[in-house]
Design goal:
Blueprint: H1 9-38, H2 43-61, H3 65-79, H4 83-106, H5 108-119, H6 123-136, H7 140-155, H8 160-183, H9 188-216, H10 224-227, H11 233-262, H12 265-301, H13 305-341, H14 345-377, H15 381-402, H16 408-434
């Protein structure tokens, strides 16, 4: 259980480093999926997997609140040395995860039809993408349960198990991709089946560590906490706000994609390249945000303001260092990276024109990344929701229209205002709500 010692740099990186490694392993899987389907006899398979992966990325991203909410609740109960509360946090998160997964499977036909209609691929690609969807939807129970387990272990200040879970998923997926597609000559059905088996492999790893942890720590849990709806009040109070917050964030990037498309195919492609580069930065900053989640939650649960302020200060310091390194990295290596991601001359010219925004954004975005972790740990989901809605619909969307005369530069300026708004708003709420709620 938690000690009373103040957070230090070693504790920050004990959590952040494994999470960064697990994040970095994710794009490797996407490269393998693309590689194996890209070597099939027809390009429609590659297009179908791209469409199917997009559907599931969007679908599952909406339920990431299961990870964030579970982390904050667990970290606070860990800080309060509440053994029963830790069991309740995991049990409720798993039950809600499986209930949502069951609903997705039950509604799989209309979900697939709506998603394919919205994305609008050609008919032959849509048909094969539907095959991919029909198989991969059965990964939903394991995928969502893994969100809950990963969130629970981060809340316990344990980032090693989430790393093991993610590595088990990605390594299994990569191996089975090669076996099913290259060895057994399957197509998208093999890629989808590999994903399903991999997610359940990760679930087996996570569940085994959870059982081992619970056996090592004494404690009981009344069954009523899991079967009585009113017992989920605290869980839903946090997670429904996080769901709305995530939907607003997804809307922002969807808006950028749609607005870029209206400016032409070259702008759309160039923005996709630059946003992928921006995601590189998120791997490191997300890892530090996870450390903030765990340590802030522990401090809030222990009602220790000194530990809270120390955890935030250290996390912010390292986040600023990392963000500055990324700005320097994009300044020096931005153009070579663009050419690594695309060899289309016209796209390269357009992407180079907007590359300066990528040099600026790490130092702008770092505040909202860090404070996301702080607010998750403090379970201040309502404030996260309010700030995201304000930043999206009262700052970002109006800015897109006000600066539309600047073309794509106007879109990137609007994104900058969005990130600034989030950073300022969350800093204000941190000072007035988060710190003020913890005894001095």
């Amino acid at each position: 259980m938690p000690s009373d010692s103040l957070p230090d740099n070693r504790e920050i990186w004990r959590i952040a480093a494994p999470m960064i490694l697990s994040n970095v392993s994710v794009p490797l899987l996407g490269m393998v999926d693309t590689g194996v389907t890209g070597h099939l006899e027809d390009a429609v398979y590659l297009g179908a997997v791209a469409i199917g992966s997009t559907i599931f990325s969007f679908l599952y991203a909406g339920f990431n609140f299961l990870r964030m909410g579970t982390t904050g609740i667990t970290a606070q109960r860990f800080g309060a040395s509440d053994e029963e509360g830790l069991r309740v946090a995991l049990g409720q998160a798993l039950i809600v995860s499986l209930a949502i997964a069951a609903l997705l499977i039950l509604l799989q036909v209309p979900i697939a039809a709506l998603a394919l209609r919205m994305l609008g691929p050609e008919q032959d690609i849509a048909h094969i993408a539907a095959v991919y969807f029909d198989i991969r939807i059965w990964s939903a129970p394991a995928t969502l349960a893994n969100y809950a387990l990963i969130g629970w272990f981060i809340g316990l200040q344990n980032a090693r198990v989430p790393l093991y879970i993610v590595l088990a998923i990605n390594i299994t997926n990569i191996v089975l991709d090669l076996v099913f597609v290259l060895g057994l000559e399957m197509t998208v059905d093999g890629v989808a089946a590999a994903s399903v088996i991999a997610e359940f492999t990760g679930l087996a790893v996570g569940a085994s560590f959870a059982v081992s942890h619970l056996r090592r720590h004494s404690g009981t849990m009344a069954l009523s906490h899991l079967i009585t709806l009113k017992e989920y009040t605290a869980f839903f109070a946090v997670n429904l706000h996080l769901l709305l917050r995530t939907m607003a964030l997804m809307f922002t990037f969807a808006f950028i994609t749609a607005a870029g498309a209206r400016l032409g195919g070259l702008v759309l492609a160039a923005n996709a390249v630059l946003i992928n580069m921006l995601h590189l930065m998120s791997f490191a900053l997300d890892g530090l945000a996870h450390a903030a989640e765990a340590l802030v939650g522990k401090a809030v649960g222990a009602k220790n303001r000194v530990s809270l302020e120390r955890a935030v200060a250290l996390s912010l310091r390292w986040s600023l260092y990392v963000a500055a390194l990324f700005s320097l990295f994009f300044l020096i290596s931005g153009k070579p990276i663009v050419r690594l991601l695309t060899d289309l001359p016209d796209v390269i010219v357009v992407a180079d024109a907007y590359l300066p925004w990528l040099v600026l954004l790490p130092m702008v975005a770092v505040w909202s990344y860090l404070y996301d972790g702080v607010f998750v740990g403090a379970t201040r989901a309502r404030e996260m929701r309010d700030i995201m809605l304000i930043s999206t619909f009262l700052v970002f969307v109006p800015a897109c229209y006000v600066f539309s005369f600047l073309g794509n530069h106007g879109l990137w300026l609007a994104l900058t205002f969005f990130l600034v708004s989030r950073g300022i708003g969350m800093h204000h709420y941190y000072q007035t709500r988060v710190i003020a709620a913890v005894p001095a």
